[in-house]
Amino acid sequence: MGSEEADDPVVQEVDVYLSKQLADHLYLFQYPVRPAHMPYDDVSHLAARIKPEQQKVELELSVNTDSPNYAKSKGEHYAHDVDGACTSLEDGAQRYYNSDKLDKQMLVSTPVGVSPSTFVAGIYKDGELHLTPLKGVIQLRPSFQYLDRIDAKHGRDSGAGGDSGDMPQDEDAKPVMVRFAPVETEEAKARRMASYEFVQSRRSKESWVNVQHHPIGDQFSSAECEAMFAQQTEEVPGFHMTSEDYLKQLIPKTVMTDTEKPAMPTNVLSMTELKHMTLGDQVRALLKNAKVIRFSQLLTLLPKGSDPTAMLRSLQQVALLVQGCWVVKSEVLYPEDTFSAFSGVPAQVLCRCRDYIMWHFTQNRFLVRKDIAAVIKMPTEDVKDILEQMARPKVNRGWEFLFDFDTEFVGRHPEIVQRQSMLWDALFQQMSKVLNISKADLKMAANAAANANSPPKRRRTTSRTRTKSGGTSELSDTDIVTETGARRCTLSGTADNKSKDPMNDITSEPSKSVSASHSTTSSTEPSGVNVSDDLKRELLLFVRDRMHSRFVMSVADLRQQLTLKLAQCPPGHILGTGVSDRLLEQTLQQIDAIEFPARQPGGEIVYAVVSVGGDHERLRGIVVDMLKETGRLKSAALRKRMEEEFVDNDVPSEADMKKIMKDYCSTKGGIWYLKGQMV
Q1: DSSP at 678
Q2: What DSSP state is assigned to residue 40?
Q3: Max CA-CA distance within the chain?
């Protein structure tokens, strides 16, 4: 005998029998809102009925009106409202309660959604285990039908006030106009079959079957329990089955049956079916149903404990990032070989036009449907249907994207944002070739969207230039149409070009940020430009906030974060007036950021901060000092350094050490490298 078998000896062998005498009539009743120490065994059952096909059960149980916990005044009040003032059955009215008090309650079954094929009821007796399969699992909860009766009674009484029998008995015959019902479409039929009235009408067709309740210990109950024991009428052949086949027979795979499922509209998603899908299918189903969703909303809909990394991976396969939110891909909504329900346009054309609309929303919050339709040349119904999936109409402004910009997601996942931006650039290159969009058309579309955001205002502007000697000379007065948020105008010129047209001295360039209302200028700062104190103060707050949350960043990373921030700011924000790389470097020095030079050709200079507050500032200093020496470190070396620097009872925990290392480093092959400088 092996060691494993010796540790787990067989204590007893039991014969197992399968009884099928009650297999078609045995149900498991559950009472989820009833405490376990208060069963209904001792409660008098007044009536019971069942609908076998629907497995719907109703039980009438008596209520102890003499209990000290029973409110007699309330019970009499409800009984009077239900039965009225009738005192006996001779009044011609059928009483709901047997007395003048609320003396009974109703338990009604609700569907469980669990297949009973894997459940059995067992009885162990005389060293034998007898199993009986279950017909169904039913949960019973209290029902408040008496409240519905009160509402129905009051409504009937109030509506019958004018029907006093004064209507004439004989009326003249009147012609009747016969109308034929229109032909029902497939979509209308699906909606009708999924409606509450249709489902209730189907359920009401099955009649109730009255049954009699027998308590535990009753003679009839004991006789029925005997049927749960298998009858040994013949010799059972030998058991010839492998362990794998036995397990398959014992626990069969769950099969989702489509019987009794009405046709559902396209905008209805069953959360019960969602639980049985894989994570990728769940994400696909949710995106296909919602069309547009925030990542935080998706987290609340998916099961708890789902891997966020796997969720993001699945999300990028079925959706595209638009203003920090996720919009389902067009090919998911419009599969190949399908057509528009409005105009019959093929799916390939629908996908291309929908992608063009989505791309516009990556550039601006608003768009005008007329301008979009002029480019993609689609039927009005299809364009409106696509817009309603991801936008809402705004008076005098066109269509606005459905959700606000998701700053939280963009700030936490910059690498995904950058990857999606590159993907959009590639998609637009493909669309521009197919749709024959020229650069001029592109600029006109961008200007139209910008004008929808803020209409142009005409104002009188006097342009001046500064000479080399520091003096100023007035060129001329001219009327300039300023398109707020669409372009950034720069006045240039010298005193020598007074004769030139002033409009030739105005150069405009489209904004390159995500929002068309901001620009961050070039990376070089012109000499002689005075930076305002307000800009310095606002930039200091921005850089400190980003560095204290990310700990290690380069100037390029800060500029990318600045672009994302400006996308959320209103037009004319102080940070959009011009921030150079030199100004960013000066601000980093003000917050005592430590500079790490590039360790390989073409690398970036990165900055790290230590003084960010908290309980582990000393540990952060040690990590940064070790990285300053070689640009990398090992866990063992850091642990040894910690033991030397800290007293025994003050040494940070292993979890704290790992956390600080993740703040500053990326790991590869067991070695921790400074972020942005991994070899």
Answers
A1: -
A2: S
A3: 120
In terms of Cα–Cα distance, which of 486, 491, 492, 490 is closest to 515? 486
**pLDDT band of 328, cuts 50, 70, 90:** very high
Least confident of 16-20, 89-93, 559-563: 89-93
Amino acid letter, residue 628: K
Q: Which residue do the tokens 């502007």 mark?
A: 461
- Range scoring the smallest mean pLDDT among 66-70, 141-145, 599-603: 599-603
Say yes or no to pLDDT of 510 above 50.
Answer: no
**Mean pLDDT score, 535-546:** 88
For residues 109 and 57, the answer to whether their CB atoms sit within 8 Å is yes
**What CATH number was assigned to the domain covering residues 610-674?**
1.10.10
DSSP secondary structure of 81-105:
HHHTT--SGGGS---SSSSSS--EE
Which of 33-47, 354-368, 560-574, 630-644 shows the lowest mean pLDDT across its residues?
560-574
| Bridge partners for 45 per DSSP | 61
State what percent of residues in the chain have pLDDT above 90: 11
Burial of 627 from C-beta contacts in 10 A (0-12 / 13-18 / 19+): buried
Do the beta carbons of residue 484 and residue 454 sit within 8 Å?
Answer: yes
Strand-pair partners of 632: 673
pTM > 0.85: no
Q: Contact, 637 vs 567, CB < 8 A?
A: no
What's the whole-number average pLDDT of the chain? Answer: 76
- Quote the CA–CA distance of 233 and 269 in Å, as a whole number: 51
CB 367 within 8 A of CB 452: yes
- The pLDDT score that the predictor gives to residue 2 is 52
Please provide the distance, in angstroms rounded to a whole number, between the alpha carbons at the two ends of the chain.
56
Q: For residue 393, give the H/E element and its range.
A: strand 391-394
How many residues are given for the chain? 679
Please answer whether residues 55 and 126 qualify as being in contact, where contact means their C-beta atoms are separated by less than 8 angstroms: no
Q: Cα–Cα distance between 219 and 241 in angstroms, integer?
A: 40
Strands (E), 244-295: 292-293
For the chain, the structural domain boundaries read: 12-85+95-154+188-231+240-260, 271-453, 457-517, 610-674
CA distance 500 to 497: 5
Query: Which has more pLDDT, 260 or 676?
Result: 676
Contacts of 14 (CB under 8 A, 6+ apart): 124, 127, 128, 129
Strand partners, 213: none
